[in-house]
Write a structure and sequence with these properties.
The chain is α/β, with parallel strands linked by helices. The protein has 2 domains: 336 residues, Alpha-Beta Barrel (TIM Barrel), CATH 3.20.20.80; 115 residues, Sandwich (Immunoglobulin-like). It has 14 helices and 16 strands. α12 links the parallel β7 and β8. The radius of gyration is 23 Å and the shape is globular. The two termini are 44 Å apart. Its EC number is 3.2.1.51. It holds the Pfam family Fucosidase_C. One of its GO terms (cellular component) is lysosome.
């Protein structure tokens, strides 16, 4: 069964897209708080288990203490559903923002590990005996249908995240087959039959083998009987041990390492260190636009996609700093997108300087922070090599993306364009002079002109290699 599923090629649109948007939104968006460096969407787990993990050495009792102080000792996580109103939710505005960011696809959390669904689903109430979906409590509307319509009207691929497990569902806690036969499978089918998404991002698979999940059976239904067509994309999170081994594209999370092999892959991360909106994150916790742009270049040079998360507040508004970051990325992609979209990994992803290439960005941390790419480029660690150039390729061109303005000239190594080939700086309408230099080329750059509509996040040379 899995051999057949694994043999199914990942639709080409996904590998060409390169840049997507993740959206974490649900009852956890009401408190919207956990210690900076931790996941706010795990609020229920942090609270009920009196434990937590993340960067910055969070205190185990941080969430229980915050909950009691803010909402009272008799409060319940399930109260947040009533407070999750989504009164300012406007998916058309979301779609316009995402389109302007340069993203090509979007993934919305249809159900996270707390089990709350953003669509009217009867299985959400299984064994709970109280409303636990957005159509019956809180917003009292289907939040997914207008999202799907708005994204598609904007020309974006519309995906849905779905958690296989639920932390405190009685049937799952008992590892009852009833959770599979009467909850997971029928709920998943309801989601797919209603909305026929372009992409499904599964998660929460890690505790159980497929002998429990029976995800292979469900995916056989998905690809043979569901309304989704051949362009449907799935990821690799379907049972314990399936990541990087089974399913569709491979997934990393707050990582800084490429996935080897020919399989498409995607890195997901927030603009800070949370997926859900976190009120404890300050400006220094957010990645700069330069870091985000260089991160995108780094991942694409390694053949991957970046799916960057936004966390709307409970009312449905995307925080202004997140809007700003997306628009900054979009402005850069308007000039340099040719070097990103539809490209492939070149024979080498980077041009390194001299020095050690060994980095350990995760030492003492749960998650690799976004400044890793600054340390590998423009803010070097003494004695370490830096990535001087990112490479991508498409058709008859190699794109050399420079993290900083090199001055009067730059040497691009290990490339041999033919005589008469053109080299251009994207965003500047003039050809550059170049000569062969050793095993590469020396490219002469014009004096920098402030009138150019370029950002200082990164600069791209287009090199013909006919």
């Amino acid at each position: 069964m899995w051999e057949k599923i694994d043999a199914r090629p990942v639709p080409a649109w996904f590998g060409d897209a390169k840049f997507g948007i993740f959206i974490h939104w649900g009852p956890y968006s009401v408190p919207a708080w956990s210690p900076a460096g931790t996941y706010t969407e795990w609020y229920q787990r942090w609270w009920y288990s009196n434990s937590i993990f993340g960067n910055n050495n969070p205190q185990a009792n941080a969430i229980p203490d915050f909950q009691e102080k803010t909402y009272g000792e008799e409060s319940s996580y399930y109260d947040f559903a009533k407070m999750f109103k989504a009164e300012l939710y406007n998916p058309v505005e979301w779609a316009e923002l995402f389109k302007r960011s340069g993203a090509k696809y979007v993934i919305l959390t249809s159900k996270h590990h707390d089990g709350f669904t953003l669509w009217p689903n009867k299985e959400a109430q299984n064994a709970r005996f109280f409303p636990w979906n957005a159509a019956e409590i809180g917003p009292k509307q289907d939040l997914i249908e207008p999202y799907m319509e708005a994204m598609r009207d904007a020309g974006l691929k519309a995906g849905l995240y779905y958690s296989l497990y639920e932390w405190y569902h009685p049937w799952y806690q008992e590892r009852s087959e009833k959770f599979i036969t009467h909850h997971y499978h029928p709920q998943f089918k309801d989601l797919v039959n209603r909305y026929a998404p372009d992409l499904i991002y599964a998660d929460g698979e890690w505790n159980d083998e497929d002998s429990y999940w029976h995800s292979g059976e469900l995916l056989t239904w998905l690809f043979n009987e569901s309304p989704c067509n051949d362009d449907l994309v799935i990821n690799d999170r379907w049972f314990k041990g399936s990541r990087f081994n089974h399913g569709g594209y491979y997934t990393t999370e707050y990582d800084a390492h490429a996935v080897e092999g020919e399989r498409p892959w995607e890195e997901i991360r927030g603009m800070g260190l949370s997926f859900g909106y976190n009120r404890d994150e300050d400006i220094e916790d957010y990645n700069s636009p330069k870091a985000l742009i260089l991160m995108l270049c780094d991942i694409v040079a390694n053949g991957g996609n970046l799916c960057l998360n936004v966390g709307p507040s409970a009312d449905g508004k995307i925080p202004v700093i997140m809007q700003e970051r997306l628009l900054q990325m979009g402005a850069w992609l308007n000039v340099n997108g040719e070097a990103i979209y539809g490209t492939q990994k070149w024979k080498k992803p980077f041009q390194w300087s001299n020095g050690s290439r060994e980095y350990n960005f995760k030492e003492g941390k749960a998650y690799i922070e976004g400044d890793y790419i600054l340390k590998q480029t423009v803010d070097p660690i003494p004695g370490k090599a830096v990535k001087e150039v990112f490479f991508t390729t498409k058709e008859n061109a190699v794109y050399a993306i420079l993290p900083k303005w090199p001055g009067k000239s730059v040497v691009i190594r290990d490339i041999n364009p033919k005589k008469g080939s053109k080299i251009k700086l994207l965003g500047v309408n003039s050809e550059l002079s170049w000569t062969k230099s050793g095993n590469g080329v020396l490219v002469e750059l014009p004096d920098y002109d402030p009138a150019w509509e370029l950002s200082d996040y990164a600069y791209t040379l287009k090199i013909e290699v006919r």
